[in-house]
Design goal:
Elements: H1 2-5, H2 10-20, E1 25-27, E2 30-33, E3 37-45, H3 51-58, E4 65-69, E5 77-79, H4 81-89, E6 94-98, E7 100-101, H5 104-110, E8 114-116, E9 138-140, E10 143-145, E11 149-154, E12 157-162, H6 166-188, H7 193-196, H8 199-208, H9 214-221
Parallel strand pairs: 3-4, 4-6, 5-7, 6-8
Antiparallel strand pairs: 1-12, 2-8, 3-11, 9-10, 11-12
Helix pairs in contact: 2-6, 4-5
Length: 227
């Protein structure tokens, strides 16, 4: 999965989701280590202790991505170097944190891809009751993800897609990427994007039919720039 994603971006996949009618589930995250990550979601809700992560690793498959739900909290870090090191030993492909991390220097040395909302020296100073579904789902931003999802992450953030539609979405994303690359090459060669997408024709058609959208026009001319 990571090999195929290497030729794409999360933006390509997001546009593919729009085209396929799949909800676009994205969040803004920053890469602590690594530039991209792909794998099946291994969810874990953090309530103040790392035991949830260690238990998640017990049932992990090689290539899974630990997706940590810490409610987007910015008053504590919930993942540090020991969790990252244990994750690597368990065959985990990377860690996505809806919250903060710490031990940045050590995590960088470990080399495992980690994406988070940022860093903070302070670890958790609380221990809340653990929900019954702590290892079956994680809420990331406004999205709830499970083992039935795949997470893809790069410099733009992370996107979650249904595992059973990954191949379909990758195919669409590759088509969108190839179209956009051709368009970029033509712009560099002197042919404007407006000319490529026949923007003058769109303006004329919209004048005759105000309900016509630019996205509809792009689909008709296979423009691809918005999806």
């Amino acid at each position: 999965m990571l090999e195929r994603f290497a030729g794409l971006t999360t933006a390509h996949v997001a546009d593919a989701c729009v085209r396929a009618g799949v909800p676009v589930r994205t969040v803004s995250l920053t890469a602590v280590v690594g530039e991209r990550l792909a794998g099946r979601v291994l969810p874990a809700q953090h309530v103040g202790s790392v035991d949830a992560f260690l238990e998640a690793f017990e049932s992990a498959a090689a290539g899974d991505v630990l997706v940590v739900d810490n409610g987007g909290r910015r008053d504590e870090a919930c993942v540090g170097d020991l969790v990252a090191l244990e994750a690597a030993a368990a065959g985990i492909a990377g860690i996505v944190i809806w919250g903060l991390h710490r031990d940045t220097v050590d995590i960088t040395a470990i080399g495992m891809p980690v994406f988070s909302l940022g860093a903070l020296p302070t670890g958790p100073l609380r221990l809340d009751p653990r929900p019954a579904d702590a290892l079956s789902k994680a809420t990331i931003g406004e999205w709830t993800v499970t083992r039935e999802d795949v997470v893809l992450a790069d410099e733009d953030g992370a996107i979650f897609v249904p595992a059973d539609r990954v191949d379909e979405l990758f195919g669409l994303a590759e088509s969108i990427r190839d179209t956009e690359h051709r368009q970029a090459d033509e712009i560099r060669a002197g042919r404007s994007l407006r000319a490529q997408v026949r923007f003058g024709e769109f303006l004329t058609a919209r004048a005759a039919d105000p309900s016509l959208t630019f996205r509809q026009h792009l689909r008709a001319v296979r423009g691809a720039i918005e999806e």
